[in-house]
Each structure stands twice: as structure tokens, then as C-alpha cells.
Design a protein that fits this description.
The complex is a heterodimer of chains A (212) and B (319).
Chain A (H helix, E strand, L loop, with lengths): L1 H9 L3 H35 L1 H16 L2 H12 L3 H25 L3 H9 L4 H31 L11 H11 L2 H33 L1
Chain B lengths: L5 E8 L9 E8 L4 E5 L6 H8 L7 E6 L2 E2 L5 H6 L1 E4 L11 H5 L1 H5 L4 H14 L4 H4 L9 H13 L5 E5 L7 H18 L2 E6 L2 H7 L2 E6 L2 E6 L1 H6 L4 H7 L4 H5 L9 E2 L9 E2 L5 H9 L4 E4 L5 E4 H14 L1
Parallel strand pairs in B: 3-8, 3-9, 6-7, 7-8, 12-13
Antiparallel strand pairs in B: 1-2, 1-4, 4-5, 9-10, 11-14, 13-14
The chains are: A mainly alpha (212), B alpha/beta (319).
The complex binds adenosine-5'-triphosphate and magnesium ion.
Chain lengths: 212, 319
């Protein structure tokens, strides 16, 4: 048992792991950054405008429910294999979670609080920066956390279409029937998701503490 | 800084989709430094009228002048930074410390941090809270009464010449409310700020107002001193709203010094009462079983049932 176990760890593909992990982080990082840059104005607009909110959330909901494999299959004929297809798919998925939480966060700001801010002479931009942002932050970070975990998981599919990341390790293992690669890739992806979740959870708690 | 005069002329407000006017052709001239209370039942337009003064509500017709200047003359933000605004407890920003909350308007006005800090301490002292203890607290670490004091301090931070208070003490218990009313009166006397105060609590209005503006269905029904409103209600509506036949209520507006009688002989063992106590308090003492009360520091002066009755009659005649 012990010999087996140590042999198993020696067999882990640690030499590839560093590179694949870095690629994975890059893929996820780009996806979240782009997704957030799009979600923020959409979320603010949807929170302020009743007529935009319903249709927008419905449309994003449809994207969210599409099976991820199907999305990749639909995008590849247009954008080919590689990073672009991966990022488009990931940004699409993250959108729903991010926009929904930004909307919920902004709508939860009590009207009298904003009324007091306006009455004291804040401009709309100042109300947004000094009241809305700190008040909505816990839910926005919560959305970012859920989106990050989902994206880390879905991003393993990138390995299948030549975009690298931990999925490349995993799929190489599947192709070559090499369990150690499969296990290394899966464990690393899971550990990454758990780690990122824990870090963002901590930040979220600080934000909650400060918004109360 | 002394208060500003406020002139409200033919103001009409109709909310979008509403079938009647929230404020229906209201005019009111308020001299600098007056303490005005808007009194009336829920939905009669008190808050709406109040909020036209700092342009949180824009009238459909009419004009408003602060110190002779049309409120539309500057940007709404500039106007509001010069007018204090206090609402019920929720108005404090929960993610900001007490000092940050109080410093909001000075910060918007670009004051130096050192000047803001000094002002925060000054204001905490003004509302009778120890700066060292309260400066760094968060709103959730305050009692309801303390939170309201901070709300008042925040509204006064940039030395506004007009202060708007919308049911500021509605969420605190009766005892705390009374002390907050007294503080507000004291601050008003000390600063001379023109104050507009919304309430639907009749006794609160009678306690603190220089002038009570009684409203009904978007209109001003009567605007007069508390004593005059009680003694000469303009309409049956005012009479019912203030329960003006409640004599005891009127006595709470009169002082012992309004009802003095003089006697040659010493008052003997009659209980003493202060000259600035209300006649309501004097009545209570008399009912406890005395025929007269000696007035403290007024040689030989006393009050009794007859002198109270005379003061009441005189106040009704004067009104
Ligand atoms: N933002 C708004 N949109 C539409 N109607 C409003 C709005 N605010 C107030 N109203 C309506 O205008 C009328 C006057 O409301 P206002 O808030 O001025 O009354 P109020 O005297 O302050 O009442 P309360 O004592 O309940 O605070 C009411 O009929 C109310 O329903
Ligand atoms: Mg109101």
C-alpha cells in the first residue's frame, strides 16, 4: 500500500503541472476580467431599468443553460480551435452569474439610504461610488466567487481544443490511457477551485462586515 | 451662521400617475431663524413639501426662494450641500464610521481632513456625545437615540442656514424623543438655523414649534404659533386634529410666570415651583393637594387654581 502510494505520487506529472496551472490561471483570469468588464455596465443598467432587466436576465439564463460542450461545438466552426473560442464560451457562462449578482446587490441598497445621500448633496456618480458600491460589494464578490469556481471547472475543456491549461494534462492522460496525468489534472483543477473559493469567501466576509 | 429666510410661493406638486396633487398650491413665508413644524396626517404632503425646498422634489408650478435666491439658481448638489437634511434612523451610512458619516458634506465640499476632524469633534460635543467614545463607532453600534443625534450632527456639519428634518424622531421611544426635542430646541436657539420639521405627533409639534403649519390633502389649513392654533383653530379639521378643547394641552404651553398672583403674607408651607415650569406641571402639583404654590425666586408670588384659570382665559383672548 505504502509503496504503491509513493509510486503513485512519483508518477504525478509535476513537471507539466506548473506550466498547465499557469495556463489555466491565465485562461480563467482573462475570462473573469473580460466577463466582469461586460457584466458591470450591463448589471448597473439592468438594476436601474425595469424594462432591460427582465429580458437581459432571461437571455443570459438561456446561455447559462446551454451544455458547455455544445457551446464549444457551436463556436469552433466560427473561431476555430484555441484560446478565442475558449474565452468566448467562458465569458458567456460567467455573464449570467455576474450580472444577476450585480443586479441583486444594487437593488438591495435601501432607498432611504440613497435618498439621504442625494439629500446631502452627492451627485449620481458619488452615490454610486460611496454608497452603492460598498453596499453591493458582498453580493458582487459572491458572484465573482461562483463565476470563478464554474470557470475553473469549465476551462478544463480548453485542453480538448488546443488552448492548454489543466485540461490539456487531463485529456493527454485520457488519450494515452495514463491515469497519473488524469489524476494530476483533475486534482489540480479541484484544488484550484477550492483554493480560489476559500480566498474569495474570505474577501466576501470582509465586505459583508464593512457593508452592514 | 444665522438662518436664512425661505419663501414658498404657489407651489404645486403632482406625482406622475397620481390622480390628485400631493402639494396643492402652497405658499408660506418663513423668516430667518424660525422653527417651523409641518403637522398633518399620513399622506397629506408634508414630506413632499419639505423636499421641494432642497429640490429632491421639483414642483410642477411655483417658486421657492432661500434668502431671496431661487433654488433653481445653482446645481441641486450645491443647493443641498448648504441645506441640512435629517430623516429617520436608516439615513446613516452603515459602512461608514460616525466620523465619516458626519464628515460627508464637508468632504463633498473639499475641506481639509484636519478641519473635518475638528468639526466632527465640535459637532459630537454639540449633540452631547463624547467625541473620544463615538468618533470611530459604526452606526450599528449606536442606540436609536444616538443614531438620531449623529444624523442631526451630520446635517449640521457644513453650517447650513436651513435644516430640513423629516420625522427625525419617529423611531425612538417617547422618553428619548422628548430629550431629542429639547436638544433640537437648544441647538436651534444656539445656532439660529431656520428649521423645517415634519411630524404627525401633535404634542411634538406643540413642544418645539415657533409656528405650526397644519396641512390636509396637500393644502395648508392653518399656520400659526402653537398657542394660537390651540386657542383659535381655523377649521373643525384643525380643532379635531389637535384636540384643541384639551385644556391641559394648552396649559403645557403656558408658564408659571404667565399666571403669577401676588400676596402680602408669606406662602407658609406651600410647595415651590420654578417660574419657567409649565402650568400643566403646576396644575398637577395643585391637584396633588395644595391650595397654592410658591414661585421660586419670586418674593411672595404664587399660583393657584384661580390664577391658572385667569391665565388660560387671557391666552385665549390674546390669541
Ligand atoms: N415618490 C412618489 N411617487 C408617487 N406618489 C408619491 C410619492 N411620494 C409620495 N407620494 C404620494 O403623495 C402624497 C403625499 O405624500 P407625502 O410623502 O408627502 O406625505 P406625508 O404627509 O409625508 O405622509 P407621511 O406622514 O406618511 O410621511 C401621498 O398620497 C403619497 O402617496
Ligand atoms: Mg412623510
Amino acid at each position: 500500500m505504502i509503496a504503491n502510494a509513493s509510486g503513485f505520487f512519483v508518477g504525478l506529472h509535476v513537471e507539466d503541472l506548473g506550466v498547465r496551472l499557469a495556463q489555466h490561471l491565465l485562461i480563467v483570469g482573462i475570462a473573469l476580467a473580460v466577463a466582469f468588464a461586460i457584466a458591470l455596465p450591463l448589471g448597473v443598467l439592468a438594476a436601474r431599468n425595469d424594462r432591460v432587466r427582465g429580458p437581459l436576465l432571461a437571455a443570459l439564463g438561456v446561455v447559462y443553460t446551454l451544455p458547455s460542450l455544445a457551446v464549444f461545438a457551436l463556436l469552433i466552426p466560427v473561431f476555430g480551435l484555441g484560446l478565442v473560442t475558449t474565452e468566448i464560451a467562458l465569458v458567456g457562462y460567467a455573464q449570467m452569474i455576474l450580472v444577476r449578482n450585480i443586479v441583486a446587490g444594487l437593488q438591495a441598497v435601501p432607498a432611504p439610504m440613497r435618498d439621504a445621500a442625494r439629500g446631502l448633496g452627492m451627485t449620481d456618480a458619488q452615490i454610486f461610488a460611496k454608497i452603492d458600491v460598498p453596499q453591493a460589494l458582498p453580493l458582487v464578490i459572491g458572484g465573482l466567487r461562483l463565476a470563478a469556481v464554474a470557470t475553473i471547472s469549465i476551462a478544463t475543456l480548453a485542453g480538448k481544443i488546443d488552448a492548454g491549461g489543466l485540461g490539456a494534462l487531463l485529456f493527454a492522460g485520457l488519450d494515452r490511457d495514463d491515469p497519473s496525468r488524469i489524476v494530476t489534472g483533475s486534482l489540480a483543477a479541484a484544488a484550484l477551485a477550492i483554493g480560489v473559493d476559500a480566498i474569495l469567501r474570505r474577501i466576501e466576509r470582509v465586505a459583508i462586515e464593512r457593508a452592514r | 451662521m444665522p438662518g436664512a429666510s425661505v419663501s414658498i410661493r404657489d407651489v404645486v406638486v403632482t406625482y406622475p400617475g397620481a390622480d390628485r396633487r400631493a402639494v396643492d398650491d402652497v405658499s408660506l413665508e418663513v423668516p430667518a431663524g424660525e422653527f417651523v413644524v409641518f403637522l398633518g396626517p399620513s399622506g397629506c404632503g408634508k414630506s413632499t413639501l419639505l423636499r421641494t425646498i432642497n429640490r429632491l422634489v421639483v414642483p410642477d408650478a411655483g417658486e421657492i426662494f432661500v434668502d431671496g435666491n431661487d433654488v433653481r439658481g445653482a446645481s441641486p448638489e450645491t443647493l443641498r450641500r448648504g441645506i441640512g437634511y435629517v430623516i429617520q434612523a436608516v439615513g446613516l451610512f452603515p459602512h461608514m464610521s460616525v466620523a465619516k458619516n458626519i464628515g460627508v458634506v464637508p468632504e463633498l465640499l473639499g475641506w481639509e481632513p484636519a478641519r473635518i476632524d475638528a468639526r466632527v469633534d465640535e459637532l459630537l460635543a454639540l449633540v452631547a456625545l463624547d467625541p473620544a467614545r463615538y468618533r470611530t463607532r459604526l452606526p450599528r453600534e449606536l442606540s436609536g437615540g444616538e443614531a438620531q443625534r449623529i444624523g442631526v450632527a451630520r446635517a449640521l456639519a457644513a453650517e447650513p442656514r436651513v435644516l430640513l428634518m423629516d420625522e427625525p424622531f419617529g423611531a425612538v421611544d417617547a422618553l428619548v424623543r422628548t430629550s431629542l426635542q429639547d436638544e433640537t430646541k437648544r441647538i436651534h436657539r444656539a445656532l439660529g438655523t431656520t428649521i423645517f420639521f415634519v411630524t404627525h405627533d401633535v404634542d411634538e409639534a406643540l413642544r418645539i414649534a415657533d409656528r405650526i403649519v397644519v396641512m390636509n390633502a396637500g393644502k395648508i389649513v392653518q399656520a400659526d404659533t402653537p398657542l394660537h392654533v390651540l386657542a383659535r383653530p381655523a377649521t373643525p379639521y384643525v380643532e379635531a386634529l389637535l384636540d384643541t378643547r384639551d385644556t391641559v394641552r394648552r396649559l403645557s404651553l403656558l408658564r408659571v410666570s404667565d399666571a403669577l398672583s401676588q400676596s402680602e403674607r408669606s406662602p407658609g408651607d406651600a410647595p415651590a415651583i420654578a417660574a419657567d415650569a409649565t402650568l400643566r406641571e403646576a396644575l398637577a402639583l395643585l391637584l396633588a393637594g395644595s391650595t397654592q404654590l410658591a414661585v421660586a425666586d419670586r418674593n411672595g408670588a404664587f399660583v393657584d387654581f384661580a390664577s391658572i384659570r385667569a391665565a388660560l382665559a387671557a391666552s385665549a383672548a390674546a390669541a
